Amino acid sequence: MSTTPIADYAILSDRHSAALVSHHGSLDWLCSPRFDSPSIFARLLDDNAGHWSIRPSGWFETSRRYLDQTMVLETTFHTGSGTVVLTDAFALGHDNAGHRLGADVPHLVIRRLHCTQGSVPIHIAYHPRPEYGLINPILTETTSGVTARTGARLLVLTTPVRLDIGHDGAVADVTIDAGTTLYFGLHCSTLEQPPARVWEQAELADRLDSTIAAWRSWSDLHQAYVGPWHHHVHHSGRVLQALTFQPTGAIVAAATTSLPEAEGGERNWDYRYSWVRDASLTLEALWVAACPDEANDFFAFLTAAAPSLSTEKWLPIMFGVGGERDLSERTLPHLRGWRGSRPVRIGNGAWDQRQIDVYGEILCAADRLADYLTGIDDETRRFLVDCADAAAERWRETDHGIWEVRSAPKHFLHSKVMCWAALDRALALGPLLGAADRVDTWRRTRDEIRRTILRDGWNDEVGAFTQYFGSRELDASALTLPIVRFLPADDPRMLKTIDAISERLTDDQGLVHRYHTQGGVDGLAGEEGTFLMCTFWLAHTLALSGQIDRAHAVFERAAAHANDVGLLAEEVDPVSHELLGNFPQAFSHIGLINAAWEISQAENAAATNEPR
After folding, report:
1. What is the pTM (predicted TM-score) of this model?
2. Maximum pairwise Cα distance, the chain
C-alpha cells in the first residue's frame, strides 16, 4: 500500500488533467486526457498501480518550488557527488498566453533533468499501469522512445536514455555530469485523438519554455491582489486555475480520488468532478485572486449541462467535467488505498442527492461577478432566474446539505440560509436578470425564510445557531451566515456562535471540525480530521466581526498547513497534524483567498477609521 504522505506531493496541470509528483521525483498519479479519466499511474493508492520516477540512485536530499508565477515544478536533488535539478510540467499548447491558458494541449508531461554540479548517478523507473492499475501493458522499444498500447490508449515515452524493458516496466541507470541536460516526455492519446509520438529534444525544450511563459503571461495579466499573504493568494489562484477543465469551464473539487478523511477510514470519495457549489465559490475566490474571465464559460457550462428547472425538480449538485450527470459510484477492490484506507472509489454516490443550497452559491457568484456577466445570453439569464424560483419554491424541503450526508435528509441551517441568499442576490441582480415580475414574490419569500431561520435555527440552550432545525449539534457552516450577509458578524447571536464553534468544535491546534461525527448525522462510521475551509471561515468571520488579531492568528494556523510548495488538502489529522483528504483541495484554497481578502479589508478599515 502507498505510505507517502499526502503533503509530499505537488500538482502538475494542463487544465485538462492532472498529475502528482512526490518529493523523490516519482510521478505517482496521472489521469489523462481528463481529470476524471482512468489513471495511468496510481501508486498514490497502491504501490503496484504504476509510477514513473527519475531520481538519484543513492543518498540525496531535496528542495523544491514552483517556478515563479507558474505551476511548473522544480525539484533540486543534492547528493554527495553533485546536484541535479528536475523540472516537471504538464505542457500547454503553443499560443497559450493570457486568456488562452490551457487551450489545445498535447497531453504531454515534460521532465527536464539538468546537472548543475559534479557527477550524479540517476535511476529511472517507468511502470505504466493504465485503468487504475489493472493493465500491465507490453512495452516496445523504438528509436528514442518506448511505446505502450493499451486498448484505446497509446502511451509514448520519449527518452534520451535507453531503458531496459522487463516484464513489469522499464528501467535505466545513468550518470550525468555538470552541464548535461536531458529531456523526457510522456505523450498520451486515445483513439479519437492524433496518435502520441516521440518528441525531439528541441521540441520538448520549446514546449517547456512556452509552458512557463504561458503561466507567467496569465499571472501577469490576471493577478493584481495586493495585501497580506499576497503570495499565498496568488498561488492559490493558480491552483484553482489548475483545477479548471478548460474545454468546458468546469472546475473540479480536487485532482484525486479516495484520499481519506481519516487514515484507514471509509470516508474516501472521488473529487474529480465539478460540484456546482465548489465551482461557484471558486469563481468568487477568483474575483480576489485573479481576473475571473472564466465566469462566462462556467455559467455557460452550467446552463448547457443543467436540466430545465421548470421541468425537473432538482438541480444536480455536480457534473462530470464534460457535463455528464450519471456519476454512479463503484469501488476498486484491487487497490489497497492510501495507507490501507479502503474502499477506493470512483464516481460519487452523492451525484443524485438533493442539496438546496446550490441555488444560493450560484446566485452569490453571479452577483459577485456581475460586471463580468454583462454579455450573458437569454438562456443563461433564464437559468439564473430559474435558480431563484427554485430556491423560493423548495426552501421548506429537507435535503442532504453542504456536507452531503448519507443519512436521512434534514432541515439543515446552511441550506435554508443559502436559499435566502439566492433570493437576496436575485433581487440585487434585478436589471441583469430582467425579472421584474418576480420581485415581489422573491422579496416576500426571502423575508419569510429569514424569519424562519431566526426562529428555528437558533438554540437558546446551546447558545448558538445549530446544524439543523431542532438540533443541539454545532456545525461550522453556521460561520457562513455573516459571510453571505444574512446577519452582521457582530450580531450578538453570531458572536455567541463564533465563540461556541471556537471553543467546542476545534482541536488542540485551534483548527475547526465541520461537526462532531459522533452524533451520526452523516450516516458514516469513524471520525475525520479538522477541515481547513471551516478554519478559514472562522478567520473570515472573525475579521468581519472586527476581531482582527484573532482572525490573523486563525488564518496563520490554517495556512501553516500548506506543504512546501503551498498546496492544501481538505483536512488535517488532529493527532499527527498530517494533511488528509483529496489533494490539492479547491475548497481549502478558496477559503484561504477569501479569508485573506477579508482580513486585508478589515485591517485597511481599521487603519483609516472607516466603517466597513
Report:
1. 0.97
2. 76
pLDDT of residue 303: 80
| Alpha-carbon span 215 to 483, nearest angstrom | 31
Residues 332, 343 contacting (CB under 8 angstroms): yes
Nearest-angstrom CA–CA distance, 359 and 478: 17
* 3 state SS for 128-192: CCHHHHCCCCCEEEECCEEEEEECCEEEEEECCCCCEECCCCEEEEEEEECCCEEEEEEEEEECC
Q: Please tell me which residue, 522 or 537, carries the higher pLDDT value.
A: 537
Cell of 434: 430582467
Query: Which residue reads 483529496 in cell numbers?
Result: 582
The answer to whether residues 322 and 33 touch, using CB atoms and an 8 Å cutoff, is no
CB 555 within 8 A of CB 539: yes
> CA-CA distances (angstroms) from residue 542 to 279, 281, 479, 496, 539?
25, 20, 9, 12, 5
Whole-angstrom Cα distance, residue 146 to residue 169? Answer: 10
Does residue 255 contact residue 42 with C-beta atoms inside 8 Å? no
Cell of 603: 485591517
Distance of CA 508 to the CA centre of its chain: 26
Closest CA to 454 of 466, 436, 444: 466
The runs of H, that is alpha helices, within 409-531 are 413-428, 430-433, 439-456, 480-483, 492-504
Burial level of 94, CB count in 10 A (0-12/13-18/19+)? middle
Residue 464 pairs with which residues in a beta bridge? 459
Which residue is associated with the grid cell 433564464? 382
Q: Which domains does the chain have, with CATH numbers?
A: 6-219 (2.70.98.10), 223-608 (1.50.10.10)
DSSP, residue by residue, 563-578: -TTS---SEE-TTT--
165: its cell numbers: 524493458
Cell reading at 257: 480520488
- pLDDT at residue 475 greater than cutoff 80: yes
**pLDDT > 70 fraction of the chain, expressed in percent and rounded:** 99
SS3 51: strand
Chain-centre distance of CA 79, in angstroms? Answer: 34
